[in-house]
UniProtKB/TrEMBL annotation:
Keywords associated with the record: Repeat, TPR repeat
Domain DUF5107 span(s) in chain numbering: 71-382
Protein's organism: Microbacterium phyllosphaerae
Keyword GTP-binding: no
Taxonomic lineage: Bacteria, Bacillati, Actinomycetota, Actinomycetes, Micrococcales
Tagged with keyword Repeat: yes
Record Gene3D superfamilies: Tetratricopeptide repeat domain
Protein's name in the database: Tetratricopeptide (TPR) repeat protein
Length: 980
């Protein structure tokens, strides 16, 4: 997926995104009524992100969408270009008789354009520029279209490429598949954007696969943007009476807000202006606001543009897809400033988001080892029926109850002889109408029946099948829904059971400010042998690479579990012990634990796979294949088994069987990297996926193939996704050592030490183990430095500092290791002198890096240096200061505090700022302080500040008592220095 970016500034007269015509080779298919899809690059004005910082960011306590804003091991981007370039983006286009879609695989596989050909309406927000702002987890995030968010919100890889392919079906439909491995847990997410031959529906088929050996948490929100104005109305099902804030910390009525919400007193607003309490209209919401439905019995929601007389519906099975949400920046100067940051001319938008396996944010569910969750979501445009009062995948219906019953219907596929029935409360037919319907048309039925309670409307196909059915929702509001409360302090919790469950909640929801450890430690104080708590702690230790500690905890847990029952009902501790023993190198002990865990149906599939892998690695191919056959007969599907089966069949000389199995697997999953490699030798486009692929090959006993993939990985260039070349060499060394090729392994480690280490941020247990092995083989300051980076992120911060000091003592005089050691010296060792020394050395080694200078200034604040000292340091390096907004703000504040307010004001007004979401108000505050010092009144900020003055008091992300506001997003930089 190559790109071609011009270097000259784009011509603004050419800014509109122009979609290409259907290729001549596909025109006949389109004319025949089939859907068509093709690759064709498009030119879009693009504001390019800067290169990432070369320093790892440890932001585990950052508040981001109510959960942890942890970003490691992803590189962190902190600036976007201020002028666009005309860039060619790889794009996939889909068209049928009713729809035109454009998907951007280089930007997370998002739908960028969704156009209704029947009404001439973009039913999703079309942003004619790629203009990211600093909203994303790692920096860049763009508005528009549909962003598919997982395993948290926003998608961590939202501004990174995915693999894609087009699948054409015999029925004339097409699916564009997009797939990648998430940057954190390395789970695999695949979404297929499907358009039928004769339908106006966009169906997204999703497969979320936990390809790891341990349970992982996730959520899924499809983030749909729609262009809004005063006449745009969002709609939820008619039985929705309340909506909730993030984490259900607050509620309000819906569609009329009946209490203060996000600081806005909507009742008071409605007293001044009729209808101003209706939060289903964008025009009535003056502040950044989220709301999620609390409950509904229905599957649909959407939005409607009353000016354009068009809109859209979303539908999904509510058994797994309860989440329905709106977000807006707010129709006020503060929100308008963000609109300008995210587009050049396309105006404001709101997000109408659909959650699956989640109904709030944060709200995470679990994926078991090897598990795949499958589901579908549906969107379709609606013509001028008004807001939908009921909808299915086949049709949407609006029922006007003012006067005689008036019904408006829209369908998603041609329906000849459709029949509309209106019945009363007793089921007696009161009116019947027939028509031929096609997508894009509105069927308006004037019933002549006075509106009355109990009336029911049903649209049937000519076959008699129900397409959509509506009946009036009862007006009884029922009880007020519950709201969340913060857990009590550990000592105040009544039971060990509750202490365990609170800790589990904090783990599951990736809480940014509360740790499970105080709760679990208190539980063990009361009951030192609580098996659930010991197992939970063991899992945390395992994930951090503390295998000895994990084993000790599991031995204690199993002593309690098996004291009276040698065959426990739940085998999670046994399975985890098998993983621990496997990492410790005791294959026999691991197999014993896996074999016992295999007795529990929940662990048949993952434990069975681990044992089959053991047999494959030992060369016992027939036994491994037999294990897979048995697993297929009794265990839930685990996509990892298929590739292992192909490998084993080939080793046993059963090439025809292997080929047949591989063809079947690839037809089911055309973008699986391991299957692609086994089929054609294809290699992934992402560096970390090279390591994933090599690891899976090695676990299948394919050492030579793993070495070959890793050799290719050493030539993958560094990018915004990271740099795996040095790690690939350490992985090669570990395999070569296991093969007894010690000299070759030593050469790989030497090559790793000489590699470009920019953006090399190791993560995960495979990286951990090969770096530990490298240090066991010989003194290696680079391996020590990299392992320290991994352990600091994993919470083993004392160990990380010791490794960084060891690397420096071993001769690694590198700005990254000195910066890391300086950060840990302050946070962990509380050694201020050493922290300063490390930072000064890092700055000396990399004097042009503005992040280092910013962090040195942040350290100065915490060490109580005077404003004059700080100003003099920054003044001497003003060329570097000017590279960062936050450093310019800090310097401007220092100018004000040391008597140079006029200089500060001139500095602030000479610059175009790019605020972080969560950091709003910092630039404006500095501007206000400079003006106040000069005796000037508070004024309307210039657009160059990038901020509008808020009409409310923004929420505080983190309060003094440790509580967090789940709406607020905390500015990343302020959380690096946090003493433990």
């Amino acid at each position: 997926m190559s790109t071609d970016t011009t270097t000259e500034t784009a011509d603004r007269s050419n800014a509109e995104l122009v979609l290409p015509d259907v290729p001549a080779a596909l025109r006949a298919d389109l004319d025949a009524g089939r859907a068509v899809a093709w690759y064709e690059a498009v030119e879009i004005d693009t504001y390019e992100p800067d290169a990432p910082s070369t320093y790892p960011m440890y932001l585990d306590q950052r508040v981001y969408q109510g959960s942890s804003g942890r970003v490691y091991p992803m590189p962190f981007i902190e600036r976007i270009a201020s002028a666009p370039v005309r860039r060619r983006w790889n794009a996939v286009h889909i068209e049928n008789a009713y729809l035109r879609l454009m998907i951007l695989p280089e930007l997370g596989g998002r739908i960028h354009v969704a156009y209704d050909k029947t009404t001439g309406y973009d039913f999703f927000y079309r942003n004619n520029v790629i203009k990211p702002a600093l909203v994303g987890l790692t920096g860049p995030w763009m508005s528009g279209g549909v962003e598919f968010n997982w395993p948290q919100h926003h998608r961590p890889a939202t501004f990174l490429p995915v693999e894609s392919t087009i699948e054409r079906h015999d029925d004339g439909s097409v699916t564009v598949w997009c797939s990648d491995h998430d940057p954190f847990a390395r789970m695999r997410g695949t979404h297929g954007i499907h358009v039928g031959a004769n339908s106006s529906t966009v169906r997204v088929d999703v497969r979320l696969h936990n390809r790891t050996s341990i349970a992982q948490t996730f959520l899924w929100w499809a983030n749909v943007a729609v262009r809004v104005h005063d006449q745009y109305q969002s709609f939820f099902p008619e039985d929705v009476r309340h909506v909730a804030d993030h984490a259900r910390r607050a509620l309000t009525g819906y569609p009329q807000a009946d209490r203060p919400y996000y600081g806005v007193d909507y009742r008071e607003r409605a007293r001044r202006e009729t209808g101003a309490d209706r939060i289903d209209w964008y025009r009535n919401i003056p502040v950044p606001t989220s709301y999620m439905i609390v409950d509904t019995e229905h599957e649909y929601f959407g939005g409607y543009d009353h000016d354009a007389q068009a809109g859209f519906v979303h539908w999904a099975d509510r058994r797994v897809a309860p989440g329905k949400k709106q977000w807006t920046w707010g129709d006020a100067p503060f929100g308008h400033a963000w609109d300008r940051l995210l587009t050049d001319a396309d105006g404001p938008y709101v997000e109408l988001m659909a959650g699956v396996y989640t109904d709030n944010q944060p709200d995470f569910s679990w994926l078991a080892p090897g598990e795949t969750k499958r589901f579908s979501q549906y969107w379709y445009p609606i013509p001028g029926i008004g807001v939908a009062h009921q909808a299915s995948t086949e049709a949407a219906i609006h029922v006007d109850r003012d006067g005689d019953l008036l019904v408006k219907v829209a369908v998603t596929s041609p329906q000849a002889g459709a029949r509309l029935e209106i019945r009363d409360a007793d089921g007696i037919l009161r009116s019947e109408h027939t028509a031929d319907l096609v997508p894009g048309d509105v069927w308006l039925v004037e019933s002549g029946i006075p509106s009355a309670s109990g009336l029911r409307v049903r649209l049937r196909a000519a076959t008699g099948a129900t397409l959509v059915a509506w009946q009036e929702v009862a007006s009884d509001e029922g009880e007020e829904p519950w709201t969340a409360t913060a857990p009590s302090a550990p000592a105040d919790v009544d039971s060990t059971d509750e202490l365990y469950l609170i800790g589990l909640h904090l783990v599951q929801y990736r809480h940014p400010s509360r740790s499970p450890l105080p709760y679990w430690d208190e539980a063990l104080r009361r009951d030192p042998s609580d098996a659930r708590v010991l197992t939970g702690l063991a899992e945390l230790a395992y994930r951090a690479g503390s295998y000895g500690r994990a084993k000790e905890l599991l031995d204690r847990a199993l002593a309690r579990i098996t004291a009276r029952n040698a065959n426990p009902r739940h085998a999670d501790a046994l399975y985890l012990l098998g993983l621990v023993e496997q990492r410790r190198g005791d294959a026999a002990a691991a197999r014993r634990s896996f074999a016992k865990a295999f007795w529990d149906a929940a662990f048949v599939a993952p434990a069975g796979l681990e044992m089959a892998r053991q047999s494959a690695q030992a060369g016992d191919h027939a036994a491994a294949l037999h294990d897979l056959d048995e697993l297929d007969a009794v265990a839930s599907d685990d996509r990892r088994r298929g590739a292992l089966r192909v490998v084993l069949l080939r080793r046993l000389g059963r090439d025809a069987d292997a080929g047949a199995a591989l063809r079947r697997l690839r037809a089911e999953d055309p973008l699986d990297p391991l299957l692609g490699f086994l089929d054609t030798g294809a290699l992934p486009g992402d560096g970390r996926t090279f390591l994933d692929l090599a690891g899976e090959l090695a676990r299948a006993g394919e050492a030579d193939a793993a070495l070959s993939v890793l050799d290719d990985a050493t030539r993958v260039p560094p990018s915004a996704a990271g740099n795996v070349a040095p790690l690939a060499r350490y992985h090669r060394a570990a395999i070569l050592d296991r093969l007894g090729l010690a000299d070759d392994a030593a050469r790989e480690r030497a090559a790793a030490r000489e590699s470009d280490r920019r953006w090399t941020f190791p993560a995960g247990l495979d990286d951990h183990d090969v770096l530990v092995a490298a240090l066991a083989a010989e003194p290696d300051p680079v391996a020590a430095s990299l392992l320290g980076a991994l352990l600091y992120d994993a919470g083993r911060r004392e160990d990380a500092l010791a490794l960084w000091e060891r690397a420096i003592e071993g001769g690694l005089d590198d700005p990254v290791v000195h910066r890391n050691a300086g950060l840990a010296s302050y946070n962990v060792a509380h050694d201020d002198v050493r922290a300063v020394a490390h930072y000064e050395r890092a700055v000396a080694l990399d004097p042009g890096d503005a992040r280092l200078l910013f962090e040195r200034d942040q350290l100065a604040v915490r060490l109580g240096e005077t404003d004059i000292e700080r100003r003099e340091r920054l003044a001497d390096r003003f060329d570097v200061v000017a590279a960062r907004d936050d450093l310019v703000v800090a310097y401007a504040d220092l100018l004000v505090s040391t008597g140079s307010a006029a200089e500060a004001l001139a500095l602030l007004e000479s610059r175009v700022f790019q605020p972080w979401e969560g950091g709003e108000g910092r630039v404006l505050g500095a501007w206000d302080r400079a003006r106040d010092a000069l005796g000037l009144p508070q004024g309307e900020p210039p657009l160059s500040l990038g901020e509008g003055r808020p009409a409310y008091t923004p929420p505080i992300a983190r309060h003094a008592d440790g509580e967090i506001d789940y709406f607020a997003t905390s500015l990343p930089d302020l959380l690096l220095f946090s003493r433990s």
